């Protein structure tokens, strides 16, 4: 690892990988810092919608079979208004379905295909800006040592909880409201159709919505609540519903996981960056209704790479270019939450 790069990206998810791919293609020196050990687990539905699939295949290639789960394709989303009534929303007109993947494998493949230098188990702890460069302070968790790195541009692909965003604008960070999401993975079975991703919209099961899917035979289900509220009562009610109405049989618990999110996405509170620091994906506020974030993560990462490349070539303004490039995606993200709230018949994030 060198001590100076054109661009450093923090986070190795789809937004970071897409930015890395675009910048590597322009011949820039690039480093991706990932705080976790790769491949790292990510709480996610693992549905690759058509837009995501098109971008993936065009810029990265065909998704490897190792990333797929059983069932390999999902036909659509099945939203339950109660325990008996539902409406299906197919993912495509032909009914063939879209890829169903493990995010850990998909994300790891993406960032490797970017061609960037990658350092996992490296945590960004601080940064300072000057007229000529950005000085990063990182910690190598494997060797327990501090590292200084210089770069001209910094990209935050850290997800909803961004250290970079918090440093750039503490007041903006204080204004955010947060929710927690929790998910279980059990060996077992149920009567719910495994070829659909299921969403339960009744407020008694969660403050955003409760979800269910099947991956490699595992019964995957979870819910969310505003930070500070107890999520356990929602999860217990939801589990009872799955057991009593859909014959959920739980065997061994294979994994339990959680994450936090904020109200940037549903309220259209985007934060794109400052000076030569750009934010992409969920760190910037790109996350579509019901939590679909891969498509806008990929596009925002690509736009950040394009903005930086154009800035270097024309001595322009990377943030201004990035702001213009993301205008359509920001509008689409905001509209998706309005439509989602209308579908659910309530605010999807009442926090």
SSE inventory with pairings:
Blueprint: E1 4-10, H1 14-25, E2 30-33, H2 50-59, E3 68-74, E4 76-80, E5 86-90, E6 98-101, H3 103-113, E7 117-119, E8 122-129, E9 134-140, E10 145-156, H4 163-168, H5 170-175, E11 178-189, E12 196-200, E13 210-215, E14 218-226, H6 232-246, E15 249-262, E16 273-274, E17 277-279, H7 294-314, H8 318-325, H9 327-344
Parallel strand pairs: 1-2, 1-10, 2-7, 4-12, 10-17
Antiparallel strand pairs: 3-6, 4-5, 8-9, 9-10, 11-14, 11-15, 12-13, 13-14, 16-17
Tell me about this structure.
The structure is a single chain. By secondary structure, the protein is an alpha/beta fold. 30% of the residues lie in helices and 32% in strands. Strands 1, 2, 7, 8, 9, 10, 16 and 17 form an 8-stranded mixed beta sheet that branches. Helix 1 links the parallel strand 1 (4-10) and strand 2. The radius of gyration is 20 Å and the shape is globular. The mean pLDDT is 94.
């Amino acid at each position: 690892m060198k001590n100076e790069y054109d661009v450093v990206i923090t986070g190795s998810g789809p937004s970071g990988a897409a930015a890395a791919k675009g910048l590597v293609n322009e011949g820039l020196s690039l480093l991706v810092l990932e705080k976790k050990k790769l491949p790292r687990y990510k709480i996610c539905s693992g549905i690759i919608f058509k837009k995501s699939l098109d971008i993936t295949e065009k810029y990265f290639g065909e998704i490897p079979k190792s990333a797929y789960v059983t069932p390999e394709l999902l036909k659509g989303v099945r939203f339950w208004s109660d325990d008996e009534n539902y409406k299906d929303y197919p993912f495509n007109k032909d009914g063939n379905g879209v890829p169903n993947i493990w995010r850990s494998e998909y994300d790891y493949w993406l960032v490797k295909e970017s061609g960037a230098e990658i350092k996992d188990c490296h945590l960004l702890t601080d940064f300072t800006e000057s007229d000529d460069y950005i000085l990063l302070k990182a910690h190598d968790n494997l060797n327990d040592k501090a590292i200084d790195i210089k770069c001209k541009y910094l990209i935050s692909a850290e997800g909803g909880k961004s250290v970079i965003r918090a440093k750039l604008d503490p007041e903006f960070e204080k204004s955010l409201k947060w929710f927690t999401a929790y998910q279980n993975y059990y060996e077992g079975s149920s009567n719910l159709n495994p070829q659909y991703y299921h969403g339960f919209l009744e407020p008694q099961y969660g403050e955003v919505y409760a979800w269910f899917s099947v991956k490699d035979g595992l019964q995957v289900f979870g819910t969310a609540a505003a930070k500070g509220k107890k999520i356990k009562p929602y999860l217990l009610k939801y589990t009872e519903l799955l057991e009593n109405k859909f014959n959920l049989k739980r065997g061994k618990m294979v994994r339990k996981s959680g994450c936090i999110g904020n109200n940037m996405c549903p309220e259209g509170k985007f934060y794109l960056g400052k000076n030569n620091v750009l934010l992409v994906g969920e760190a910037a506020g790109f996350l579509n209704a019901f939590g679909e974030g891969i498509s806008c993560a990929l596009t925002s990462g690509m736009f950040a790479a394009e903005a930086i490349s154009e800035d270097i070539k024309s001595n322009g303004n990377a943030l201004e270019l990035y702001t213009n490039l993301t205008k359509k995606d920001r509008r689409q993200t905001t509209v998706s939450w309005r439509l989602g709230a209308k579908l659910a018949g309530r605010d999807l994030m009442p926090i």
